[in-house]
Amino acid sequence: MACCAGGGAPVEDMQALAISSLSAADVDKHYEHLRELGKGTYGKVDLMAHRTQGTKMALKFVTKNKTKLKSFLREYSLTASLSCSPFIVTVTDVLFETEDCYVFGQEYAPAGDLFDIIPPQVGLPEEMVKRCMQQLGLALDFMHSKGLVHRDVKPENVLLFDRECRRVKLADFGMTRRAGCRVKRVSGTIPYTAPEVCAAGRSEGFLVTAGLDVWAFGVLVFCMLTGNFPWEAAAPTDAFYEEFRRWQKAGCPAGTYPSQWRRFTDDALRMFRRLLAADPEQRCGVKDVFCFIKYTLLGELRRRASCRAKRGERAGSSGPFVGGGGGGGACAAPPAVYASSSASASSSSAASSSASRSGLRLSEPVAAGPLGPACMKRTVLSDPLSPRDESPSPGRDKTKSQMLMATAIEICV
Q1: What would be one Gene Ontology cellular-component term for the protein (predicted)?
Q2: Exposed, middle or buried: residue 186 (CB in 10 Å: 0-12, 13-18, 19+)?
Q3: Banded model confidence at residue 14, pLDDT cuts 50, 70, 90
Q4: Which of 51, 78, 175, 391 is such that its CA lies 20 to 30 A from the CA of 208?
Q5: What is the C-alpha to C-alpha distance for residues 104 and 145, in angstroms, rounded to an integer?
Q6: pLDDT tens track for 310-349
């Protein structure tokens, strides 16, 4: 499918797309199965090689009893029309169905996804984060220029072609919709969900805007830099979010930063204030963050405290840091921690290391408030009516997929 042009969104009537039918024997005849990359309730992704051409690709199998043909074809056509951007994953011309599944092929990302390399409670080296920010910002800006909103920006949907984040691509367009359309809210929330969606009722739904991606992008940058979520949900019931909102309402006064934001420089806080404005009309465009890439984002105090903490953790842990250098001089990361989906478990597990994660000296007084942020975990679909999100991403290793944990997710139809 040709790339969309002229600033308009690609046509979403997929009835004209031809989808051939293959038996299991036909699939084996044309493709050699190398290994399974990921598996979920609603499908799987296998690494395959074309038997005659030898080219590798990730074949995405979606079970028919979980996904409608229209939804499957929408994702394929949207991905194909956007993949002329070098920062968006490319689909192949492989599109068929078997007796049980719909299948399409897309390029294989050998380094997995972004979630795989973020050290929990530590974060990535700043230079790696900036490389991701620039590439993902260009991908989202390209989508927004076509009138499209991704609506599911998170580390699991960022595919890596190297462990240094020199080449990353945005993937998984199953939730993508046109800007300006109204969609229904189906289930709960995840930390990347914008506050206007958290506040929306099920009956009236909400309007799809580019601001949804801008908010998620801001949360993603926080996660990359810290290895933590800034909050569980952008809602009044979340103490971390409320602390951040009170600071925003007060005009973001210097010297009174929220507990989880003291690690950042003033330039970084200016960027976050623009990305995470509670009013969608006041949020900046994604490409506006490019001017902040030249600044230092993490304060020197936090850097020293973080490295001291990591050296201590390395002494008691055999797990290596897999994120690579990227110019940040990272220390060893702690072993992966997968937090419970309950708020109480998240708070208790974070309390023991809140001082080192906040980037403060132990002698520095800390204002009363939440003990610590929730440790990062994969956001996996829990609503059986909305199967889109549990489809594994191409490039995700099978062993990683076995560590997925269920948590509520905001998903709309």
Answers
A1: cytoplasm
A2: middle
A3: low
A4: 391
A5: 26
A6: 444 444 443 333 333 333 333 333 333 333 333 333 333 3
Residue 165 corresponds to which amino acid? C
Distance, in Å, from the CA atom of 208 to the CA atom of 176, rounded to the nearest integer, reads 10
Distance CA 357, CA 355 (A): 6
Structural domain boundaries of the chain?
A: 20-106, 114-401
Task: Provide the angle, in degrees to the nearest 10, between the axes of the packed helices 126-145 and 211-226.
Answer: 170
- Interatomic CA distance for residues 107 and 88, integer angstroms: 10
Contacts of 189 (CB under 8 A, 6+ apart): 197, 198, 233, 234, 235, 408, 409, 410
For residues 381 and 407, what is the distance between their CA atoms, to the nearest angstrom?
A: 7
Decide: 36 and 49 in contact? Cβ < 8 Å.
no
CA angle 295, 88, 168 (to 5 degrees): 50
Cα dihedral 202, 203, 204, 206 in deg (nearest 10): 30
Residue 100 has pLDDT above 90, yes or no: yes
Tell me how far apart the alpha carbons of residues 150 and 172 are, in angstroms, rounded to a whole number: 8
Say if residues 146 and 4 touch (Cβ distance below 8 Å): yes
Buried b (16+ CB within 10 A) or exposed e, 347-386: bebbeebbbbbbbbeeeeeeeeebbbbbbbbbbbbbbeeb
Local confidence band at 40 (pLDDT 50, 70, 90 cut-offs): confident
DSSP for 173-230, written as a single string = -TT-EETT-EE-B-S---TTS-HHHHT--TTT-EE--THHHHHHHHHHHHHHHHSB-S
CATH of 20-106, one of 3.30.200.20, 3.40.50.720, 3.40.50.360, 3.40.190.10: 3.30.200.20
Q: What is the pLDDT of residue 332?
A: 33
CATH of domain 114-401: 1.10.510.10
Length of the chain: 413
- The token duo for 56 is 């590798």
Q: What angle do CA 133, 136, 140 make, to 5 degrees?
A: 130
Over residues 187-220, the pLDDT tens digits come to 667 899 999 999 988 778 899 999 999 999 999 9
100 is catalytic: no
Choose, from 152, 172, 213, 238, the residue flagged as catalytic: 152
Q: Tell me the C-alpha distance between 149 and 297, whole Å.
A: 27
Q: Is 378 helix (H, G, I), strand (E, B) or coil?
A: coil
More confident of the two residues 260 and 302: 260
Query: What's the pTM?
Result: 0.74
Instruction: Using alpha carbons, select from 96, 100, 87 the residue that is nearest to residue 150.
Output: 87
